[in-house]
Amino acid sequence: MPSMGMQMAGCALALLGWIGVLIACGSPMWRVSAFIGSNIVTSQIMWEGLWMSCVVQSTGQMQCKVYDSMLALSQDLQAARALVVVSIIVGLAGVLVAFASGNHPRFKTRISPLITTTTTLQL
C-alpha cells in the first residue's frame, strides 16, 4: 500500500494534468501557419484551434472567429476536439474517484449508534 504522501502527490499531479488538458482545449494554437508575402506588410500568422481560428496581421492586429459549424473543421481537428472533450470528462471522473477513495483515516471516522466510542473504519 503506498504511503499517504505518495498518494497525495499522485492526486496533485493528476489534478495538474487535468488543468493542463483544460488549458490545451481552450488554446487557439493547435495548428499555426504563416503567410509571408513579397513585402513585410502582407505577412499573416494563422492560428487554428479546436473552437476558433485567429489571424495575426503584420501590424500586430489580431482577429479571432469562432467556427460556425462543426463541419467547418478539418477531420483531424474534429477528432482532436472529440478526444479532448472525452479526456476532460474521463479525467475529471478519475480525479474525483482518486480524491474520494483515498486512504484518509482522518476522514473515515464513523460513529455507530450501537457502540459508545468513536471508531475508525479501515476499508
Automatic annotation (TrEMBL):
GO MF annotations, alphabetized: structural molecule activity
Transmembrane segments annotated in the record for this chain: 79-100
InterPro entries listed in its UniProt record: Claudin (IPR006187), Claudin_CS (IPR017974), PMP22/EMP/MP20/Claudin (IPR004031)
One Pfam family from the record: PMP22_Claudin
Membrane topology value: Multi-pass membrane protein
Residues in the signal sequence: 1-24
Keyword Iron in record: no
One cellular component (GO) term of this entry: plasma membrane
Keyword Mitochondrion in record: no
Domain of life: Eukaryota
Main location: other
Keyword terms, alphabetized: Cell junction, Cell membrane, Membrane, Signal, Tight junction, Transmembrane, Transmembrane helix
Location within or outside the cell: Cell junction, Tight junction; Cell membrane
PANTHER family recorded: CLAUDIN
Function field: Claudins function as major constituents of the tight junction complexes that regulate the permeability of epithelia.
Family (UniProt): Belongs to the claudin family.
Protein name stated in the entry: Claudin
Organism the protein comes from: Hippocampus comes (Tiger tail seahorse)
